[in-house]
Structures are given as structure tokens and as C-alpha cells.
Design goal:
Layout lengths: L1 H17 L4 E2 L5 E5 L6 E31 L13 E4 L3 E18 L6 E6 L6 E31 L13 E4 L3 E21 L4 E6 L6 E31 L13 E4 L3 E20 L4 E2 L16 H9 L9 H4 L17 H26 L2 H11 L1
Parallel strand pairs: 2-6, 3-7, 4-8, 5-9, 6-10, 7-11, 8-12, 9-13, 10-14
Antiparallel strand pairs: 1-2
Helix pairs in contact: 1-4
Length: 387
């Protein structure tokens, strides 16, 4: 008789599963197992593996060559008589700017894994309930930067090398202009790397509560997180500057009958070299490993009774009936493809189909119960007695 009763219970459980109750498996963030019978075995196993590998390699080779020539000198006033001889040269200015930049690497991994919520509650006495979570996250980032830069700047600027020779009967004057040279070499930025990583295991809320007496409840969680960031820089920079600046070298020879004056201009040379290279920034923001085993108020019911009638009423008033999968978790908009193995159960056609399936299962169950309670051989013996 005990075997027959268990068979009938098994039929009801199958029907219960067909109606969407019992174990709900959702490929989303929330997993719910609730309101199963006594002696049931409920288990949730979640294995999450995340592996991210990023490799960036940059190599640059730059060569610049600049040659400038500025000249207002080299003038000659010679062999003049009965008058003044004068040479005045203008200013000479030269400005050279060389700027190099290259090899910039940026890696930004900014998403933390989606948290999961697992709940096993309201199951009967002598039930076995287990939640096993295994989560591993491995992130490897490699950034290689190699730069070779050669800058070569040469130039001449002259207001001198003037000559006023063999003049007579007057004054001789040579006045040269000023020379202003500005040279800038800027190698910046070269070989820069910026790595920003959010790495870690997803948050987890696991709860086993309000199960019947003598139930066996277990939560097992294993987290593994490994983040490796490698940045390598190599720079070979050579800057060459060669300038020939002249405001002198003037001649006033063999003059007579007057004053001889030579006034040379100033020379102003400004050189600026800036090498801003091999800059690495690594920022690892660990996603918080959240493990919430539930509040203390959610301890298993030691009295062996199912959830109270008051809590059942609260469940009835809730838009999500007990044992069902929350629409927010099952919806594809939540990040998952929906319920695996089940189609839409909210339409009128689906409800009608489940109704007829239920009738068929009940009829089948009734037939099995009748066959078990009143075997065919008993009817045969009864027929013989009537005869």
C-alpha cells in the first residue's frame, strides 16, 4: 500500500512540474526552488568561468633632420675715397620646432560580473537542499611599447663677416644685426599605457530558509580571482643640435683720413628639449565579492511545519506565485534568453493545453490507483464465486 501511494504522489509531482511549479531553472540572475514536498531533493549548481586576455604591442621609429641657413652678413665696402663708408646689416632670426609623439595604449575593462541570487525555501521535511557555487575569473593584460626617435637639427645664422678696407678721406663704420635662434625638440608623450580593470567574482545572495524539520541544507561557495597586468617600455631617443652663429668676423683695414668703427650685434640662442616617455598607469578596481547567506530571521523552521497560513496569504497576494520564476529574471530583457525548456505559459492557449494535460494525467493516475487497489486477478476470482 505504501508503494501504491508513492506512485500516486509521483504522478502529482509530475503534473506539478508541468504546471510550472517545483524547480525553476532560469538562465538569468535569479534562481528559485520553493514549495516542494517532503523527502524532495533540490540542488542548484552554478559554475561561472570568465577569462579575459588583452595583448597590445606598439613599435614606432621616427627620424627628423632639419638644416637652416640665415645670413645678412658677408658685405664689403672697400677702396672708397673722399667719403664715409658704412655697412649696417639686419637681424637674423631662426626658429625650429620638432615634436614627436606615439605609442599610446589604453585598456579599459569596466564591467563587473552580474550578481546572482539563489533561493531554496519552503520545502518539506526530510528534504535535501544544496547550493553549490563555483566562480573563477582570470584577467591577463599585456602592453608592450617600443620607440626609437632620432632628431638632427643643424643651422647657420650670420650677420657678420663684413669688410671695409682701404677707404680714405672719411669715416668707416660696420654695424651688424642681432641673431636670435630658438630650437625646440619635444618628444612627448611617447610610450604611454593606461590600464583600468574591474575584476572579481560576481556578487552572490544564497538563501536556504523555512524548510521542514530534519531537512539537510548546505551552501558551498568557491571564489577564485586572478588579475595580471604586464607593462613593458623601451625607448631609444637621440637629439642632435649643431649651430654656427656669427655676428663678427668683420674687417676694416687700410683705412685713412677718418674714424673706423665696428659694432657687432648680439647672439641669442634658446634650446628646449623635452623627453616625456615611458608612462604607465595601472588601476585595478576589484569587484566586491558579495556573499550574503541571508538574514538570521530566515533560519530553517525547526518545528517541522510548512510555512504558516499567514505567509501563504502573503504569497497569494504577491504577483509572483510561490514556486514560480520571477518574470524579471526570466525575461530576455534581463540579460538571459528566458526559461530553458518552457514556452510561454501565460497565454490562453497554453493554459488550456495544461488543463487538458492535467486531466489526462489525473485520469492516468486514477487508472493506476484502481489497478493497484483492485488487481485484475481479484475481479477474476470474484466472478468465479458469483457463478
Amino acid at each position: 500500500m505504501l508503494v501504491k501511494f508513492r506512485r500516486f504522489v509521483a504522478i502529482v509531482l509530475v503534473l506539478n512540474l508541468l504546471l510550472g511549479r517545483g524547480v525553476g531553472y532560469v538562465k538569468a540572475e535569479e534562481f528559485v526552488i520553493t514549495d516542494n514536498g517532503s523527502g524532495s531533493s533540490s540542488e542548484v549548481n552554478i559554475t561561472q568561468e570568465s577569462q579575459t586576455t588583452v595583448t597590445q604591442s606598439n613599435a614606432s621609429e621616427t627620424s627628423n633632420s632639419v638644416d637652416t641657413n640665415t645670413n645678412t652678413g658677408g658685405n664689403s665696402v672697400s677702396e672708397n675715397t673722399n667719403g664715409d663708408a658704412s655697412i649696417t646689416t639686419g637681424d637674423a632670426a631662426s626658429q625650429v620646432v620638432v615634436e614627436n609623439s606615439g605609442n599610446t595604449s589604453t585598456v579599459n575593462i569596466g564591467c563587473c560580473p552580474t550578481p546572482s541570487e539563489v533561493t531554496i525555501s519552503g520545502n518539506g521535511s526530510d528534504s535535501t537542499n544544496a547550493i553549490n557555487i563555483t566562480s573563477s575569473s582570470q584577467t591577463t593584460i599585456t602592453s608592450n611599447q617600443t620607440a626609437t626617435i632620432t632628431n638632427y637639427i643643424s643651422g647657420t645664422a650670420s650677420t657678420g663677416s663684413n669688410s671695409a678696407n682701404d677707404n680714405s678721406g672719411g669715416n668707416v663704420t660696420i654695424t651688424t644685426g642681432n641673431i636670435t635662434v630658438s630650437a625646440k625638440i619635444i618628444n612627448a608623450p611617447v610610450n604611454t599605457s593606461s590600464v583600468s580593470v574591474k575584476s572579481g567574482n560576481p556578487g552572490l545572495i544564497a538563501k536556504i530558509s523555512e524548510n521542514g524539520t530534519d531537512s539537510n541544507n548546505d551552501i558551498s561557495v568557491s571564489f577564485f580571482n586572478d588579475t595580471e597586468v604586464y607593462t613593458q617600455f623601451a625607448a631609444d631617443i637621440e637629439n642632435y643640435l649643431l649651430w654656427d652663429l656669427n655676428s663678427g668676423g668683420n674687417q676694416a683695414d687700410g683705412n685713412s683720413g677718418g674714424n673706423v668703427t665696428i659694432k657687432t650685434g648680439d647672439i641669442d640662442l634658446e634650446v628646449f628639449i623635452n623627453n616625456f616617455i615611458n608612462l604607465g598607469n595601472v588601476e585595478v578596481d576589484c569587484c566586491e565579492d558579495i556573499f550574503d547567506p541571508g538574514d538570521k530571521d530566515d533560519e530553517p523552521d525547526r518545528g517541522g511545519l510548512p510555512p504558516s497560513v499567514e505567509k501563504d496569504k502573503e504569497k497569494d497576494n504577491n504577483t509572483s506565485p510561490p514556486g514560480s520564476i520571477l518574470p524579471s529574471a526570466a525575461a530576455t530583457e534581463a540579460g538571459g534568453p528566458g526559461i530553458i525548456g518552457l514556452s510561454d505559459t501565460s497565454s490562453e492557449g497554453a493554459q488550456a493545453l495544461f488543463f487538458f494535460l492535467a486531466l489526462a494525467m489525473i485520469s492516468l493516475g486514477g487508472k493506476i490507483v484502481v489497478d493497484e487497489l483492485f488487481p485484475q486477478k481479484n475481479f477474476a476470482s470474484l466472478k468465479k464465486r458469483v457463478k
